[in-house]
What we know:
Layout (H helix, E strand, L loop, with lengths): L4 H29 L6 H19 L4 H29 L4 H30 L6 E2 L9 E3 L2 E3 L1 H23 L1 H11 L1 H6 L4 H23 L5 E2 L8 H10 L5 H26 L6 H15 L9 H11 L1
Antiparallel strand pairs: 1-4, 2-3
Amino acid sequence: MIPGLSQALSNFIQYSLFYLIFALPLTLSYRTTKVINFAHANFITYGAYVAIFLHGTLGFNSMWLAAALAFLITGGIAVLNNVTVFTPLQRRGSTPAILMISSMGLWIAYKYLLYMLTDVMHFYTGRNFVSYGRITYSDVPRTSIMGFEISQALAACIIAATLIVLALYLMLEKTKVGRAMRAVADNPSLAEITGIPRSLIVNLAWFICGGITAVGGVVWTSFSGAVTPEAGDSMVLQVFTVGFIGGLVSLLRTGVGALLIASIENIGIALLNSYLGIPTSFKPFLTFATLIATLILFPPLGAGGGLPYRFLRRGSKQ
């Protein structure tokens, strides 16, 4: 028995669900809007801090209430970003690179805005919000199945991931709004010609994606030992790697990516540590190596469309 394998398996399940919750909205937002949004990290952090401010200032410890408020507030922030930044830039013909850089600007601005808010809250309450401990919620069960203890964070993750995947499937496959969203993602101009209100659908997509990510941030407060205004930043590498594995277009492949990265970071590093003595601090390097391999090998987000495809295209032209 490899030392720490049981803990690695437990972490694999937990992180798979977190990466799924965080990466699915990233994929959906890019698929609909064609913006690689680095402010996605803020959605995680702001979702977590809605729960933290409710708990730290008003004493609320209801995850359902925090998740509902976080969904509305962060979804609104995502729409605000689109209306004030992305849409005006797209109307001026900005390239995808410019849109990505503008999202980086938003990412930094929102991070330091949150630092300011934590200072203001500290002034009025005397509590430390820059590093906030794990929250124990009153409305999330903790149980055990066949001797395997299901923590509050794992129970919350399972419930949240199940509801999100089911809701996204029903919306995209069974509703007019979902079909309109898919039409805008596939061919925005044709969708507009057929009478679909493209601007409304894009804003709705941003609202849903921001809201879902924030719900994941709320769940994160029941798992992490200390939440800081950079909580979302610490997961950018993993979440974008998962999204890139799915090509930022396939929700199913994004789910596979979540399982892959979580297994590499937990089970893979445990095996490497046991057999080769590689320190567990190499975990981010494994994720980074996976990201580079994905960018090089697979289109459409690989290096110039994926190296194999570049050679194929060059050969077909000759």
